[in-house]
Structures are given as C-alpha cells and as structure tokens.
Amino acid sequence: MRKTDVYPAAPRLDVVDVLHGHRIPDPYRWLEDPADGRTVAWSRAQDELAAAHLAALPGRDALAARMHALLDAGSVAAPLWRAGRRFWTRREPGQEHAVVLTRGTYGDERVLIDPMVIDPSGRTTLDAWLPDLEGRLLAYQVSAGGDEHSVLHVIDVASGATVEPPIDRCRYSSVAWLPGGAEFVYVRMVADDEVPPGEQAFHRRVWRHRVGTPTSEDRLIDGPGLYVDHTYYSAHVSRDGRWLVVTGNVGTARRDSVWIGDLHGGAPLHPLLTQADDVQCSAWVERDGLLYLRTTDGAPRWRLAVTDPRTPGREHWRELVAEDPDSVLDGVRRLEPLDGPPLLVLARSRHAVAELALHDVADGTPRGTVPLPGPGSLTGLSVADRDTPAEAGRLWIGWTDFVTPSQVHRYENGQTVLEAAAPGAVAVPAVHSAQRTCTSADGTTIRMFVLAPDAESGPRPTLVTGYGGFGISREPAYSAAALAWVEAGGCYVVVSLRGGGEEGDAWHLAGNRANKQNVFDDFHAACDALVSAGTTTTNQLSIMGGSNGGLLVGAALTQRPAAYRAVVCSAPLLDMVRYEEFALGRTWNDEYGTAADAEELGWLLSYSPYHQVEPGTVYPAVLFTVFESDTRVDPLHARKMCAALQHATK
Q1: In whole angstroms, what is the distance from residue 117 CA to residue 425 CA?
Q2: What's the whole-model pTM score?
Q3: Interatomic CA distance for residues 607 and 394, integer angstroms
C-alpha cells in the first residue's frame, strides 16, 4: 500500500521565513489555524485513522480494563488544619475527580466541594482551594474544559453556601487569608479591555479583597518594580496578619523577585530580591515572627536562612541550615511538640528520593530524621495550626511510590504510622524496582528508575519516559499505566534528565537554553544503557513524553530515528521557531531561548523537531495526543509535526 493511500492529504505550501539569515521552510503553516476548514477536516480524518488502527490492536480492551482497576485505588491527601477543623481531599474508587472534605473535632466528615456535582459532565476541574485561618470560609478555584481559566468562589464551611459572587480571571491565582476571614490577598489577571489583544494571560495584579464587597472596591497592592509583564505572583500573609510577602517570577524563569510589606503600617511593599539577583527564594514569616528564606543564594541545592522581617536585606540573613551537597532542600515545616522545643522539618530529595530531617529551630542543629515507608516521594507535608492544640506535635506526610497510591502517614513521638491508605482495595502486581546509573555523552552520571516484573528481566518491551525541563523533578509515584505495562511483561523506566530539578538548580541550568542538547544526550544514553544491559532491544524500545517531555521524545525520534520502535508524544512543543507566538509560549523563552535573537535561534534550530524531519527517513511508529482547548501548549505543534512525519517517513 502506498503511503498516500494511508494518510490524510496535507498540502505542502511554499512558505519560507528568513530569520537572521536562515531560510526556514514551514509547509504546514496552514495547520496553525484551528478554524480553517482544511485543518478541521484533516484533524477529523486523523482521529478516524488513529481510532480505527488502535481499536484493532489485540489485548487493548483487557489492558484498558486493568488500568481502570488500578486507577480505582483512588487517593487521599495530607490534611490542612484550621482551628480544630480538618480539611483534605480524597478520590474514591470510581470517582472521576477528588473531592474536598472537612471534619470538625467531634463531627462527621462531609463533602465541601465535588467537581462532579458542579458539572456532571466531568469537564470542570478543581484547580486550588484554601480555608481561612478560622476554618469558617473556604476559597476555591475551578476551570472548565481544561482551559485553566480559573474562577474563584468563596463558600461558608458550615452551610456550604456561596457567600459572594464568583471572581473571574484568577488563572494560577495565589490566595492568602488575613486573620478573621474578612479579607484575603489574591492575584488576578488584568481585564481584556485594559491590555492589547491576546495579552490577557500575561498581565497580573495583586489585590486585597474584602469578602462580600465588589471587586471594584479591591485595593491594589503596590511596590517598586512589582508589576512586570509575564510575571506570576504568589502571596503569603503571616499568622498575625502583619506581614505580606509577595514573590514574583517572570514567565518560567528560575529567578525570583521578593517583596515584603507591613500591612499594619500600610506602607508599600519593599523589594527584598529582584530578578537581577539571579536566585530562587521561597520566603514566609513563621509563627515565631521571623522571616524564613529557602533559597539558592550561594547554594544551588538550596539552603535555609532567617532574619527579622523589619531588616530583611541579605546582609542581615543568618544561615540556619547550610546546603547539603548531595540532596535538594524542597520544603520546610515548623513542628511544635507537646514537650520540648520547636523543630524544623526539612523535606529533601536525594537523587529524586524523598527524605525528612529534623533540625533545631534556634540554630539549625540536626535532631534526627523522620522514618519514611521506603524509597518514594512526598505528595504533601502538614502540621497542625496554632489553633488546633489537640493535634500539636504531629506531622502528616502525603506519600506515594511506584506501587503505592497516594496515602497519608502520621509522625509523632519518633514513630511514623499509616493513618489513611488510598480508599480502593487494589491488587498491585509484583514489581521489582531499582535505580540505575549510566554515563551521558559528556561524562555526566545519569540516574533512572527501572521497573520490571523481576530482577532478571530482559530483554523485554521497554517504555522509557522523562521530562528534563523547567527545574521539574520526576520522582517515584504510583502510575496505573506503568503498573499495567509491567504486569503485561514490560519494563517501565523514568530517567532523571538534566533540565529537571532532581539535582538542584545547577542541574536545571545544565539542560536549558544553550545546553538543551544535554537533555537529549542524557535520554539517548539511558536508552543505550538499557539495550547494552540486555534489559531491552532497539526493536522493543518505546519512548513517551508530554509537554516539555513531548519535545524530548520529538527530538529523540528525529535525532536517532532508528533507535526507537515507537513513540507517544503528548501535548508537545515541536516547532521551536514559532512556539512563542502561541498560547503561553512567550513565557518559556527563558527556558529555551527566543527566535528573535540570532544566537538563540541557532540553539532552537539545532534540535527543533519539526525542522529536523528529513524526507526518506525510516521513522518509528508515532502517536500524537492533544486536546483542542489546551491553553498552555497549542495543538498546532502536534498537527504540523504529524503532517511532516507522514510526508517524510519511508
């Protein structure tokens, strides 16, 4: 059968851009327009072709049924405590979405927010939620159809009644309650008519809102240099309501600006760190009245410093816990035992595996560790608030690993016990897991988690995945897809790639911008090591990734098409010349570079998958998956790449 008889027709247009002296063909530019009749017809034909092919695969129904059964384990999350009231999320077997529940000191649990009650179609998702400090009101955000355009609601916890009209334009909005529950600080996108067309997603402001009043009466939080285009903001208010800390990040740049202000004094925010300082910092005022700073300042794997919020400058910082050379400091909680001095709980990850350490709150001296169930990762970490003395001294740990659905453990008196398992009873297959190492092209040691039916596994069909971007770590976590794959006889592999956060900030910087090829080299090296070890063969090797991970596998398949048998590429970035023109693309140029700069265009063209497709090449089998309402990564990337591969493959 000829290729033209298999794939839907996709005209190649004579479209060529000239950028910084480079002639850049773009024959499928027309597939960028989702409303174009040609695009609509082509997409429909591709869906029909894929559906018919996939439906004919043997064993697919049984595999889907097994994955559904494994998903029916559900999940449960670590609680938040507010004035004796517990708030948490849980997903029961058969539930599409997790629900928010609450329980008072002596009361029964009840559901506060159920996305399926809000929208029985299942297309509305709960993006965020936070109770006030007294546990009487709760703010939550929902969006529909995967567009992430969150709408902020406030309800009364006792009755479940809505207490004010919803607030729109709250995508990625941070909420910080003031004591008493009458006010909160939040982030809101600027209205459409106040910004140029197409710019709404890139302009935000921080507001102080009084519950029950119209948003037109909100008070703008301001300070020197606070408002910069493309900046995402988060807010923290101290327990006494005095100190407001605002953190700003331009796009996805791994550099933070931090401002602090005295709400009692009413003065504007004071800048503490700017983008020019070139560090990351998470800052908050603790219940002891001190300003804590978890930062990469002089510490790529993070350190913890402290100061008086009245003198917040770096010259006044006192290092409390120094950087650990082999682990990454991910978070901090203050634990107040019933007897004895307060402690700091430091959450660390050592080569992507979670650890919890105890330190003296006064001088940072190590005070032991918190036992954990095994090699895995944290899904949450919480302590009781000041107004829940009955739960003082306890630490709640959200936990998962490759074979354990999200569950909750409780630490107290030196022991960690299981408090709540995932609600569904699921028989998990026997899995052997190990963390292996290999060497990348430049000599860097790369680690990967390998899951298999047994220790002596090979050669087997192997599915390899990774991410390698934005400082995001891939850690051990429960996956129905991974377990179903291993149970069927395969190996499932998660690679810790440069560009991620598994080894700290320097690890991230070693895989972004001009260094992006390191990510792909790491991935190739891991796959080569699996073949060399006899775990798999080239003809049994498949790769999978989404979003930035979709870029990863897109680059892998174009750089070494003979090395991979099959590829799943989901919601991917693939046209790296024009990615900034669509969706949130322009907020990612600190990660990738920009085509507007001649040198950076060279970086992008060197690996841009769409531009690396070569006619007459034998490409592996590829499945692209997207959803049309994606407002992060435009589906045009997958459409154009699909057409290019179908034209080129031999």
Answers
A1: 25
A2: 0.96
A3: 50
